[in-house]
Every structure is written in structure tokens, then in C-alpha cells.
Amino acid sequence: MRARLVRLLQDAHAGELAAALAYRSHARSLWRRPAERSEVRRIEGAEWHHRALVAAMLDELGERPRRPRELLMGFVGRFFGLLCFVGGHFGPMYAAGRLEAMNVGQYADAESLATSLGLTAYSGQLVEMTAEEDRHERWFGDRVRGHLLLRPASAVLGWTPPDPVAELSPP
Known about the structure:
Layout: H1 2-29, H2 34-60, H3 67-83, H4 90-116, H5 120-144, H6 150-157
Helix pairs in contact: 1-2, 1-3, 1-4, 2-5, 4-5
């Protein structure tokens, strides 16, 4: 169980790198939408914060990030960040929502494992990170809800936005 938790945390650490790098470019691509740009920048900051929290957990467990995974996800984040400049509005918002949905599941699984292992300090942080990632998913989902491409994208890629959220606010 501990090995599974470590692996999830290592994956989350690398995934946060990919997300933060992608959101950095995504925000730049939103120069005509200042309110969305501001929120994507805030979300990027949350991803860097989560990465630091996960790094601390790994360190306390005597583990380190997996370098090959870090390199791969760094490339993935930069690549998807570049696509934000050519993908119109729907593509990057949909991809971000789908990514955040994966993060929600990853942190929920990690929290369950941490609880089973008696790592209550981790459990609390992971619950908070799950909630924040859920807010991100809902915000991105709200950006694509009702779009003409949503139905075909959902059929192919398997993600449908969760119920709408009135306003995204920090925890």
C-alpha cells in the first residue's frame, strides 16, 4: 500500500509540473479574455503549490520524484501549452478540464491510501487538494458547457463537465 501511495504521489508531482507549464502558456493565449486569463494564472499558482506539498510528502516518506516521469511531463506540459495558441478556445479549456478530472481521482485515491496507512496529516492535505482540483475541473467545465464540440469530444475523449459552479473561489 505504501508503494502505491508513493507511486501516486510521484505521478501527481510530475503531473502538477505538466499542468503548471501548460497553464502558464494557456494564460498567455487568453490575452483577449482578461478575466479568464487571471483565473488560469491563479490555477497555475495552485498547481505549483500542490507540487510543493507533494514534494514535501515524498521527502517525508524518504522518496523522490521519478526523473524520467518529470522529464516526460515537463515536455507534455510545454507541448500542450504551445497548442493553446493554435487550438482555439474550446480545445485548451476541454483538455484542462479533463486533466483536472484526472487529478481529482488521483488525489482522492492517494487520500484513501494515506488514511489506510494512518498518515492523517497527508489525508487532510490531500482532501484539500482534491477539493481544489475539483473546483478547477468545474471552472474549466463551465467554459466548454454548451459548446458545439462538447458532445463529440466527450464521446471520443470520455470527459463530460461536472455540474456547473456559480463562482470559483479559493479555499
